[in-house]
Amino acid sequence: MTIKTPYVSEKASMMLDTDGKLQFLVRRDADKTKIARAVEEMFAHEVTSVTTMMTMKGQKKATVTFADSKAGEEILSRLGIL
């Protein structure tokens, strides 16, 4: 499984409110295309871009932008986080 968990922090929630972006912790060997494909399959929303970064703890974090600006809120509410 490429995606481990949604990443929820104060900064991540601000990104959701302003830009409609979600953050996920992903496997270290996952590339951007695998991450985009996995998010589209899991949540049935079109992904427009993915950026990744390594955290100070050695985890890989992906920021996902959706074609629909309300998709992030729908996904988090479906997961029971929002």
From TrEMBL:
GO MF entry, a single one: rRNA binding
SUPFAM superfamilies, A to Z: Ribosomal proteins S24e, L23 and L15e
Keyword list, A-Z: Ribonucleoprotein, Ribosomal protein, RNA-binding, rRNA-binding
Record carries keyword rRNA-binding: yes
GO biological process: translation
Record's GO cellular component terms: ribonucleoprotein complex; ribosome
Gene3D superfamilies tied to this protein: 3.30.70.330
Xref: InterPro entries: Nucleotide-bd_a/b_plait_sf, Ribosomal_uL23, Ribosomal_uL23-like, Ribosomal_uL23/eL15/eS24_sf
Known role: Binds to 23S rRNA. One of the proteins that surrounds the polypeptide exit tunnel on the outside of the ribosome.
Family of the protein in this entry: Belongs to the universal ribosomal protein uL23 family.
HAMAP family given in the database record: Ribosomal_uL23_A
Subunit structure, interactors included: Part of the 50S ribosomal subunit. Contacts protein L29.
Designated name of the protein: Large ribosomal subunit protein uL23
